[in-house]
């Protein structure tokens, strides 16, 4: 399901950015 994959990718990116910032 493309939507699920996109959502997972967005969540992973957000987590990575958060780790970098904090």
From TrEMBL:
Top-level taxon: Eukaryota
Q: Which InterPro entries match?
A: Cyt_b6/f_cplx_su6
Coarse class of the protein's main subcellular location: plastid
A Pfam family in this protein? PetL
Tagged with keyword Cell membrane: no
Q: What does this protein do?
A: Component of the cytochrome b6-f complex, which mediates electron transfer between photosystem II (PSII) and photosystem I (PSI), cyclic electron flow around PSI, and state transitions. PetL is important for photoautotrophic growth as well as for electron transfer efficiency and stability of the cytochrome b6-f complex.
The UniProt family comment states: Belongs to the PetL family.
Question: What name is this protein filed under?
Answer: Cytochrome b6-f complex subunit 6
């Amino acid at each position: 399901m493309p939507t699920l994959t996109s959502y997972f990718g967005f969540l992973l990116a957000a987590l990575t950015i958060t780790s970098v910032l904090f």
